[in-house]
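Write out the 3D structure for:
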Amino acid sequence: MKKISIDATNISFTCQKCGRCCSFFKVFLTEKDITKIGKLGYNKEEFVDYYDKRKVIKKTGKDCFFLRVDKERSGLCKIYKHRPTSCRMYPLDICPDKTVSVRIFLFLRNFECPGLGKGRIKSTQSFLKEMNLTENDLLEVWQVMPKEERDAKNRPNGRLVR
């Protein structure tokens, strides 16, 4: 059984619906994610693509298949209430750790996310609970990510915040 460590970092984040995260990241899909989205009436072939033999959400241009951009350029997710685990855990990320198998931590990317620093400050644990994420959900995402994506040294555009 893999061990998981969730850093005690506090986080202040409220999505501002800008859609930037929906353009910059690959969203790795678990089988639960695919089933949940399928129940909304989407055919798997519509939204699933492959990266390194792993299932990811298709991109239309550089944007996520489910991103709907309105006239004011607000990024709205068509399936926000049912979005994949990787999306629900944003802006948290997963990283290997020498003392445990998986560490969950706040990992900031170089682009400016306007949602960071907005809203009340809460613990990482509280944030994950609000997003209805369990340790099993996080481990499933970890398992569907290719090894090079899991390796923090291969993430030059981010930094660990403690």
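The helical segments are 21-24, 31-38, 44-47, 85-88, 124-130, 135-144, 147-150.
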